[in-house]
Protein: Nfe2 like bZIP transcription factor 3
Amino acid sequence: MQIAKKYFTEGLIQLTILLSLIGVRVDIDSYLSGYYTPLIEINLGPSSAYTQTPFHNLRDTLDGYSVHPKCPELDHFFASRRLLDEVRNLGSPRFPTQLNAWLVHQVSATNKADGGPSTSNNTDTSSGLETPGDGARDDNEHLPDNGQEVCQTTPELGHGPCGAGACGFLKEEDDAKVKEEEEPAPLTQLAHSSTLEEESLLEGITALPDPAHHHPPTIDIDQHWSNLLSLSVTDLDDLDSLVTDTDITRAISQDVSLHDAMLNSAGAFGVAPERGEARPVTQQQRTFFRLESTGSSHSDASPGMALGLAALPFASVCNLTANESSHSALGGCLDEAVFDQINQLGLEGLDSIDTHLMGCLESIDPQVLEDLDSDSGLSLESSSGGPASPGSSEMSSSSSSYCEDECGATGYSSDVDSVPSKGIVDYTTTWSPVDLSESVWHDHSYSSPAFFNQPPVTLPHKGIKEEPLSDDDSPRLEDRDMSRDELRARAMCIPFSVLQIVNMPVEEFLEVLDGHGFSPEQVTLLRDIRRRGKNKLAAQNCRKRKLDAITGLQEEVERLQAQRDRLLREKQLTAKTMGAVGQQIKQLTRDVLARLRDDSGQPLNPERFTLQCGANGRVVVQPVRRPAVSTSTGNKTDKRKKEKKQ
DNA sequence: TGGCCGTGTCATCTC
DNA sequence: TGGAGATGACACGGC
Structure:
């Protein structure tokens, strides 16, 4: 249960950080303007298709900076786009409004405590966001009544875990808006948006049960976390029931937003809802946990997995190899804790397998190796298991440097259907030298959003492929499901998985080559596996970049075409304007000259005189200078014409 | 059955 | 000099 609490808490921390980050960087476009903020790295790390640098590389850099050293601009561009997509995918676009509501509440409390003006930066943040969330806020504003009516139209608030407490928030938001219209919001409040939103989030979780009592802004966050951590086993076990009792019937008709998820999560944290339906709550819970995932979009988490898994023994979660939802539900929660366990495993136990290795080498069937070498169609992915199979491999079990889930490239993934969960589990337990007695679940696949969107592993042709076999046929089935490199490595009794070989740092890889007494064939195979694996990742990223480049170029073409059309229209308009102005000048010149008289008292002939405006502003009447001096070419032409006439 | 697409792999280049 | 990444090209399988 401690583990579950830890995961649960870490998930909350991640979600809180995520929300605060979103709230801080309300100007999403700023990410596209050249900033290279840690936020990008944070979001880029676990999910970027271009960040195939494992953690062992990131840990030696400035918090993961220089992720893509060879192409930082392009990487940044893609990372920014990815970040933008992630922010947009977080839920309905109303979440900034709700965050602002928390912020308003917090600011108000702060101001009350400080005796300062009760203002809000709601306008500032909203104006900077330019998101549809403003529209949602406007919808609330346009309601006939505030307060209770707002509660009814925002079921996630009114009937959620906090009840009137949430209404109090919105009321306060409305009040803040009224005050905001009266006096400008101080810009300095923006600087506190991150902290305020984090505190507001915590406050929203813990203080919601008591709507009449608002915690002061100086509330101890540690106390909140202590309260959260103090949830007993029964509390956690009852979370599902609590959640499913929540009445969010009205929320069914709405897109699940970040705010929806948060409020429901708050309801799960010890607030007994009054009534409700199970399905929409579960849906929102899924969204909630998706938010705290590693940036991937698990769209099909299994109902009931959200909080139920938190109470499961960790090993049980790990063994859900065929259940993608397990990863989607608690992936973000588990990752960090999982890596802690990964770090504790290490490669120390590898030294003890040399004896076993030698024994295996002696038992290698030469024919097997020959068959393997004759096939170049290596399939690294098939052995990795992919994100669809959480129990993919034990790659990260040797050290944190092998964490593929957190830092592996999220490029294109393939062969999910070829991922044999059964084979993987057996693979990790039968021949891996690493102690996996704890059944640590690591997703060592080349994590990809496409992977997460894929249905669970039970694919049709896979089912056809897995005909019932006797126990004697199981090894052959595993061999068939494993990738060729895995088979090669297994046949050569190489005590590392493909992903281990691919993702371990070069220093460790060289140490492995030197320190384990591998034969030259084994060394060659290890190098080939590593090369193929890395090249596979590189190819995936290369293709991804290519597609993104094509998309970017298409957008650029469209933009330039629009710009060209606009410039052409401006040109035409300018020409028309110039023509009109010229006509006006001519008319004015004629009028002026008609009013002027020469020495003989006759009006000036516009054909012979014109008006010239000098540099000093004086207007001077000048005789029209006819082109008396023509070019030599013109003279020649005239002469020729004359000669022809003659 | 041919075309398209995604993917893995190899060869090669560059850093 | 070797490792790693990038990328074009090719093969293969699925649709």
